[in-house]
Amino acid sequence: MATSWVVSAGTARASRWAKLKGKTVRIDFDGVYMDSTVWVNGHQLGNHPYGYSPFSYDITEYLKFGESNTITVKANHQTPSSRWYSGSGIGRDVDLVITDPVHVDRDGVVVTTPELSDSNKTQAKTHLKTVVTNKGNKDASVKVVQTVIPRGGTPEQAIARVESAATNIAAGASATVEQDAITTAAPELWTLDNPNLYTVRTEIKQEDRVVDSYDVDFGYRFFNFDANTGFSLNGEGMKLKGVCMHHDQAHSLRGHTRRPRAPGQTPQEHGVQLHPRHP
Description:
By secondary structure, the chain is mostly beta strands. It has one helix and 22 strands. Strands 12, 13, 14, 16 and 17 form a five-stranded antiparallel sheet that branches. The two termini are 20 Å apart. About 5% of the residues have low confidence.
């Protein structure tokens, strides 16, 4: 068993912390191997035993705005582990997420296309389920404005847009807003050869002021499993070909897509359609 510590002190950035007063501050970890414990300014935020799954903490109330702040992460590596050498410590991204008190919750937008089919590819109903959180100390009346644009495109290229009625959210509470955006033009479908993607841009408005903007990428596609004919994607029958890939370079805990590969070693070049990542 081995224990490692990472301590990050914000002494040099005290002035930047001062600018965050009145904001909500969250720290997101994509993975810490393993059995991690996190502190902010000596306050224990929590413990996350599993080393391969993401987790998050709201650190707003423990920050000293205008002063230095210290974030401490402890990884308690235990053996036997997941394999002969799994690596240890912070090997995946860490993000400091800063928002207004009223904002889209973490992973708070779910996009589905329930009516997309062979016979209905033109005016696609894009169902949007959004969780809005109010971390403020008073009730908030909000509207949720959502726009569908090609990934990397501009609002002028929007193929769908919808705005909700005003929703009141009590202080310290959350609300779920569900609405449908109908496309004005046929979307380009996501296929294996052309994996076209779109972005749902969600804007939270208070008194006509945008207080949060949140993007989610997705693809328009439909699929079916049939006992007689098998699997089809966008109405086209196909065989599923896949492999289960462990993430490479265990010492860094990084995913296989980040590892340099020689020609002919990518999953696509091996004729593989599916490559779910396995710890």
